[in-house]
Design brief:
The complex is a heterodimer of chains A (117) and B (115). Chain A is mostly beta strands. Chain A is built from no helices and 10 strands. In chain A, the strands form 2 sheets. In chain A, strands 2, 4, 5, 8, 9 and 10 form a 6-stranded mixed β-sheet that branches.
């Protein structure tokens, strides 16, 4: 079956502009995650959606970052008034469920490379 | 809060040589431990994971890792490296129980393979 897909694969924008990054999770996966991978850094957790529960936004670095998930499927990560330090690869992952007593493997998309000039 | 250290930023090995990538973690209880591989332009692929039980875990592509609680380590090994193994490798720790969906990743080790 299809894996996690993300679009666009590359995005170049000017400082101060808003950008939207899209993630299509694997069909049937109820959990969706966003991570940020900056140059020379590991992956940084941003936000987590599980079913209809309120998302865990604890990893969002500032109020310029927001995300939504419509209909329990597609998710959009929005960065407002982009800054140069926002340049990174943004990775999306999905899993059958969240955490808790049993762990569900996270399957990652190829990422969106964002460059802010 | 948990943390992961991968001491080696870049490792170069010859094809056919053995490989060991180091990973040390910090977590107050028994962690969930993972190794992921990322090829250029690709997402992360899970190589193997440790939850409990046998401390030596086998993964895909001939990789294995050993959990050593006394050393807080989870090193990745492969007896004979292939050129296709050139990629970046990430170790990650997850908290067991509530919030276990959150993975904390190390900064990665880039592996280069000399033909």
């Amino acid at each position: 079956g299809a894996g996690v897909s993300q679009s666009p694969s590359n995005k170049v924008t000017e400082k101060g502009k808003d950008v939207e990054l899209r993630c299509d999770p694997i069909s049937g996966h109820t959990a969706l995650y966003w991570y940020r991978q900056s140059l020379g850094q590991g992956l940084e957790f941003l936000i987590y959606f599980q079913g209809n529960s309120a998302p865990d936004k604890s990893g969002l670095p500032s109020d310029r970052f927001s995300a939504e998930r419509t209909g329990g499927s597609v998710s959009t990560l929005t960065i407002q008034r982009t800054q140069q330090e926002d340049s990174a690869v943004y990775l999306c992952a999905s899993s059958l469920g969240g955490g808790g007593a049993s762990y569900n493997e996270q399957f990652f998309g190829p990422g969106t490379r964002l460059t802010v000039l | 809060a948990q943390s992961v250290t991968q001491p080696d930023i870049h490792i170069t090995v010859s094809e056919g040589a053995s490989l060991e990538l180091r990973c040390n973690y910090s977590y107050g209880a028994t962690p969930y431990l993972f190794w992921y591989v990322q090829s250029p332009g690709q997402g992360l692929q899970l190589l193997l994971k440790y939850f409990s039980g046998d401390t030596l875990v086998q993964g895909i592509k001939g990789f294995e890792a050993e959990f050593k609680r006394s050393q807080s380590s989870f090193n990745l090994r492969k007896p004979s490296v292939h050129w296709s193994d050139a990629a970046e490798y990430f170790c990650a720790v997850g908290a067991a129980g509530a919030g276990s969906y959150q993975l904390t990743f190390g900064k990665g080790t880039k592996l280069s393979v000399i033909p």
